[in-house]
Amino acid sequence: MTRITRKTILQIVVLILVFSFALYVAYLAQGNDAVKNAVLQYGYVGIFILAFVTGFNLVVPVPAIAFMPLFLEAGLDFWITIAIITVGITLADSIAYLIGGVGHDVLTHSEKYKKKGSMFQRLLKLKKKHPYAPLVFLSVYSVIAPLPNELMVIPLALLGYRYLHIFPIVFVGNFIFNIIYASGVESLFQLIF
């Protein structure tokens, strides 16, 4: 078994465990005022922090929206929770964009990457030929892929795509993804419990 295969299997197992834990805690919250009060104590600020932290997670991409049944059982509003999670994740994606932007600045001033034929120069040439293709892909990716947006945002920043082109796509994609995911998780929770 290769190292990448083991890492992928470990990530899937951790994701399943966290998802199961979130459903179990939501189930406990149904009859437990202490769990509900703990969620309410941190409320929307806690959800924002959770969304921001999980928005950075490249190792084990566990979306904050997986905890939606718990948030709803505690009495928090569906749409406000979706909006706060979306803003938290998008802020994390924005920080990732800044990291990629720094990489862009370093690469454009590096002699190694200024050479004709380097991978960076070939990607820049491809960007000139098909400037909107990565943005179209990002719009689809951010809605349906259960993977971190950083996998797309950082490379686009490295290639010099403007934040104002990427941010709206990522924000709307995160919002739609969270609605779809929350609806599915909530339906699954009601089916199981």
Q: Could you characterize the architecture of this molecule?
A:
The chain has one domain (3-192). The chain has nine helices and no strands. It has helices at residues 3-31, 33-55, 68-73, 78-108, 111-114, 119-129, 133-144, 150-158, 163-192. The mean pLDDT is 79. It is elongated and about 65 Å long. It is mainly α and 193 residues long.
Q: How is this fold's topology laid out?
A:
Blueprint: H1 3-31, H2 33-55, H3 68-73, H4 78-108, H5 111-114, H6 119-129, H7 133-144, H8 150-158, H9 163-192
Helix pairs in contact: 1-2, 2-4, 4-8, 4-9, 7-9
Descriptive terms for the model:
193 residues, mainly alpha, 80% helix, elongated
**pLDDT below 50 for ≥5 consecutive residues: which ranges?**
none
First and last CA, distance: 37 Å
Query: How would you state the average pLDDT, rounded?
Result: 79
Number of strands: 0
Question: Mind summarizing the main beta sheet?
Answer: none
In helices, the fraction of residues equals: over 70%
Helix and strand succession?
HHHHHHHHH
Task: Compute the number of helices.
Answer: 9
Shape, per Cα inertia axes: elongated
Described by its quaternary structure, the protein is: single chain
**Number of separate domains:** 1
Report Rg.
19 Å
